[in-house]
Design a protein that fits this description.
The chain has two domains: 65 residues, Chemotaxis Receptor Methyltransferase Cher, domain 1, CATH 1.10.155; 188 residues, Rossmann fold (3-Layer(aba) Sandwich). 42% of the residues lie in helices and 19% in strands. The chain contains eleven helices and ten strands. The strands form two sheets. The chain has a seven-stranded mixed β-sheet, with helices on both faces.
Length: 280
């Protein structure tokens, strides 16, 4: 299995950036078992077919099975408090002439994060009356995005992090599930995006939430993604990472004083005057 697993790890890292460790084969098998079962194959046979044949549909299904779509509403809570109490007041002041905000929820999984952001903005609607606000949400997983677009969640999902008052205000019963309000669904544009590919087509953003995804990348990939995220932020834009994620010391970001998870682009070092040498 070692050679097969090495080939599989190489493929996954090249296509998604996810770096599996040597001891993670059993975890990979557990992820792939449901897909193998649907195809009437063992996991070993699935990997063999996947590695030997160029089948875009199978490759997409394998990638989908390997992605971690763990998320819930207002996950970790603190980031959304920072969004409301730190980020939005700064943007309200700095963008008062432009009156336009663009927010990106990267690696949004089944949509709870962007919908949580939409609920915060709905609560702050009076302060942003007359503004144009766009929320773009993206993920590599096609099945997760399909679920996110529907905005339909079961009882367990709405009980994870979502206050009862917001559930009653922003959701409606749909048989045994809950569907988020149409006006909130309309605020979020879902797109399939692979973070290791070029994402400049999305345009520039004032705020990027990219939480709990960089931890699955190795340091070189993490640095590459961070530097490209920096180029996607507008001047004075803010990046939000997960609480346990860190940035390489030589990346394009520096933390804000309010939280190490809040980052802004480093200011470029001033050039030395002509005829003088810069001292490191």
């Amino acid at each position: 299995m070692s050679n097969r697993f090495d080939q599989f790890r190489t493929f996954l890292k090249a296509t998604t950036g996810v770096a599996l460790e040597n001891d993670q084969w059993q975890a990979a098998e557990q992820r792939l078992a449901p897909l193998a079962g649907r195809l009437g194959l063992s996991v070993d046979d699935l990997i063999d077919r996947f590695l030997r044949h160029s089948d875009p549909k199978l490759s997409a299904a394998v990638i989908d099975a390997m992605m971690t779509n763990e998320t819930f509403f207002f996950r970790d809570r603190k980031p959304f408090e920072l969004f409301r109490d730190v980020i939005l007041p700064r943007l309200l002041e700095r963008k008062r002439d432009d009156r336009r905000l663009r927010i990106w929820s990267a690696a949004c999984a089944t949509g709870q994060e962007p919908y949580s952001l939409a609920m915060v903005l709905d609560e702050e609607a009076r302060r942003f009356e007359g503004w144009t606000i766009e929320i773009v949400a993206s993920d590599i997983s096609a099945s997760a995005l399909e679920s996110a677009r529907g905005g339909l969640y079961n009882q367990f999902e709405v009980q994870r992090g979502l206050p009862v008052a917001l559930l009653l205000r922003h959701f409606q019963r749909d048989l045994e599930k809950w569907r988020i309000a149409q006006h909130l669904r309309a605020q979020v544009q879902f797109q399939q995006v692979n973070l290791i590919d070029d994402f400049t087509r999305l345009g520039a953003f004032d705020v990027i939430f990219c939480r709990n995804v960089l931890m699955y990348f190795d340091q070189a990939t993490r640095r590459s993604v961070l530097n490209r995220l920096a180029r996607t932020l507008m001047p004075e834009g803010i990046l939000m990472l997960g609480a346990t994620e860190f940035t390489p010391g030589d990346c394009a970001f520096a933390p804000l004083p309010e939280s190490p998870a809040l980052l802004r682009r480093r200011k470029p070092k001033p050039e030395a005057p002509a005829g003088h040498l810069a001292i490191a």
